[in-house]
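Sample intake sheet
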Amino acid sequence: MRDIIEVEVNPNNPSQVFAGSWNGGVLEINNGVLTTVYNESNSSLESITSDEYLIKIGGLAFDKSGNLWVANSHAENPFSVKLTNGTWYRFPYKSYVNNVLVGDIVVTRNNHKWVILPRASGGGLFVFDEKGTYTNFSDDKYKKISIADQNGTPISNDVYSIAEDHDGQIWVGTNKGVVVYYNPENVFTGANFYAQQ
């Protein structure tokens, strides 16, 4: 396995680590030993071609329930989740993302998933909430975000990094500097939702 670009430690089990490969899927490591490689044959992850070694993982993140969320670039279903019971589900948001590349993913305290649409494509951000119903997409909320200030003036969609702070605010690193979403819980309502540089 090569091109490991993301590593996440299970917050409920520090001896379990997951690593995302830009070529080979998701690796599960327990007590320092590689135990499982997740690919098309044993998960909901998708390859670029029929070659299972071209599964491009852009990001990993745990939610507060211990489920592992995966951003899967170049996939028809670009997001997957591995539940704590080992079951995998995929989410068909490609037409809404409108981007072949998906990058780092953050799961917020509101259980919203914020995803970078990487800098090479200048796609901005994508946010979704599956409402905990992994097979019912009719209640899902999702939104593609172009980063702008309170006047609607574009700041930058060239995004490098993202993080949620202890107050629940979302910090985004762009090629124009850092921006903050002070009210990320309003992402789907549109009320007072903008970034501040």
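Comment: The chain has a mean pLDDT of 92. The longest strand covers residues 56-62.
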